[in-house]
Design brief:
single chain; mainly beta; Thrombin, subunit H; Protein Transport Mog1p, Chain A; 3 domains; elongated
Length: 517
């Protein structure tokens, strides 16, 4: 699938907002006479008075270099004489202050955000001046190719108004990108540049047929394609955003998928103060790796938005983030009181030991959910860990089979301590007293023939108990016996072996995704 590039306020290392690299914000120095006529614009020649430049200032935290502050600019357009403006989510979310210049005027007007939609990349803001203002109407229908259209706005941070002409080349284009998942998108060839984000794409009557938000460049063919959010969708979403956010957790994010490091998720460029993400403890620079058990690893916002679209208004959404600069993995919930807390990381604790094991580090593929035969144990493992055994077994010598789930590239190698893998057992009817939990860990270590390196306490909020780190040469490993808040009369045994750093990442994911019933 081709990759789109958004038209950001500004860029830092190709992705960060508010850093002032492309369309830096600041005072508009060139004065233009504002069109103060009232009513809807009726031609493209009269549209200038309803098009605005938006200068946003805020803070971005790069995972490696720290906090960066600055400003950037985008475009928008008035859709109501009272001063209601439509623009892009990525133009305003996370900004500490927003100033609007109407029609190229050199006097700024403060504005407030009424609502945003991350997945549709739309936002509605309101001028602190009730007007009345000239405004653009949305077109009643999307024009078919090759209708003439005009892209209006203030590209590259320039205070001078611009208009470029082109034609609709495709009425229904692909709306999946690294910062949005838009259901209805127009492709056109009216030139747009950074700073055109949020500006209108209009027909000859000055009606908005779309909201510009993306460009695609192909260096090999020296071609460029430009994209706008369909007016039908934009009008519908904009109407609802007057009453607040939708399909949003309050972040300005970019999906990433780095094959070399294996890091994938949604890089949080900025956070809306007071939004669900902020209340949960998400910070600029965090990488959201998982929502509601769904791995965000495609490099687009498709999975992220699928989760938000599937959740009802009152649903809590589990969230996992990687705080790269502090080497922490944290878990919590959005739309609830469960804020982010650090989780135990095998990748951190065993990184030095696994490096010495000499195993070939093979990047893992997409994760899949697996379950045991009783459907009481479920977790996630890489697709290439295809050897799975969900049959009940008596691995703890209790005299009867217990729900068991084993997964590995090769279970035979795992059982002989010569390959990576994981095993989970639910020991029903066993009192989860501290003494019994410790004895289960001791028994496992003895049966596995491994040496114990250290002992600690594992606690991820739902499972808690003693944890031992192991030397099972050529593997390193871990085992814990835990009491589950969902199964007060049982003990949960979990163990995993790893030879490489990628294996350790699998152990972390398997524990994070572990569910017992």
């Amino acid at each position: 699938m081709k990759r789109l590039t958004r038209l950001p306020l500004a860029l830092l290392a190709a992705t960060a907002l508010f850093a002032g690299a492309c369309s830096s914000g600041g005072d508009s120095t060139e004065s233009n006479d504002k069109d103060t006529s009232e009513g809807a614009v009726s031609s493209v020649d009269d549209a200038k008075g309803a098009v605005v430049q938006i200068v946003a200032e805020g803070e971005f935290r790069d995972p490696e270099v720290g906090t960066v502050s600055g400003g950037g600019s985008g475009s928008g357009f008035i859709v109501d004489p009272s001063g209601i403006i439509v623009t892009n989510n990525h133009v305003v979310t996370g900004a500490g202050s927003i100033k609007v210049y109407v029609g190229g005027d050199d006097e700024d007007i403060p504005a407030q955000v009424l609502g945003v939609s991350e997945c549709n990349d739309l936002a509605v803001i309101r001028l602190d001046d009730e007007g009345p203002w000239p405004y653009l109407e949305f077109a009643s229908e999307v024009p078919s190719p090759p209708t003439d259209v005009y892209a209006l706005g203030f590209p590259l941070g320039d205070p001078e108004y611009t208009a470029t002409k082109g034609v609709i080349s495709k009425a229904e284009a692909d709306g999946e990108s690294s910062w949005a998942s838009v259901a209805s998108v127009i492709e056109h060839d009216a030139n747009i540049q950074p700073g055109n984000s949020g500006g209108p794409l209009v027909n000859e009557d000055g009606q908005a047929v779309g909201v510009n938000y993306a460009t695609y460049s192909n260096e090999a063919t020296s071609t460029e394609q430009f994209y706008a959010i369909n007016s039908d969708l934009a009008q519908e979403v904009a109407k609802s955003l007057r009453d607040g956010d939708e399909l949003s957790i309050g972040v300005n994010g970019t999906a990433i998928a780095d094959e070399d490091s294996g890091i994938a998720g949604v890089w949080v460029n900025a956070v809306d103060a007071g939004g669900p993400a902020s209340k949960a403890g998400v910070k600029p620079g965090d990488i959201i790796t998982n929502l509601n058990g769904v791995q965000l690893d495609s490099g687009t916002m498709e999975e992220y938005c699928d989760v938000l679209r599937s959740a009802s208004d009152d649903d809590a959404i589990s969230i996992r983030v990687l705080r790269f600069d502090t080497e922490e993995e944290l878990e919590g919930e959005l739309f609830s009181d469960k804020t982010l807390e650090a989780t135990y990381s095998f990748a951190t604790e065993l990184a030095d030991d696994v490096t010495q094991s000499g195993g070939e580090d093979v990047p893992v593929s997409d994760y899949v959910v697996i379950a045991d035969d009783t459907d009481r144990i479920a977790t996630a493992v890489p697709g290439q860990w295809g050897d799975v055994d969900g049959s009940s077994q008596d691995l703890l010598g209790l005299g009867s089979p217990q729900p068991t789930l084993i997964a590995a590239p090769s279970i035979a190698a795992f059982n002989s301590d010569s390959g990576p893998g994981i095993v989970t057992v639910i020991a029903d009817g066993v009192d989860p007293s501290p003494q019994n939990l410790s004895e289960v860990v001791d028994s496992f270590i003895q049966g596995a023939g491994c040496a114990e390196d250290s002992r600690d306490t594992f606690d991820n909020g739902s499972l808690a108990g003693p944890l031992a780190l192991l030397d099972c040469s050529p593997n390193v490993g871990a085992v814990f016996a835990a009491q589950s808040v969902d199964l007060p009369g049982s003990i949960i045994l979990w163990a995993g072996l790893a030879q490489t750093e990628s294996d350790l990442a699998v152990l972390d994911e398997a524990v994070s995704a572990l569910r017992v019933a």
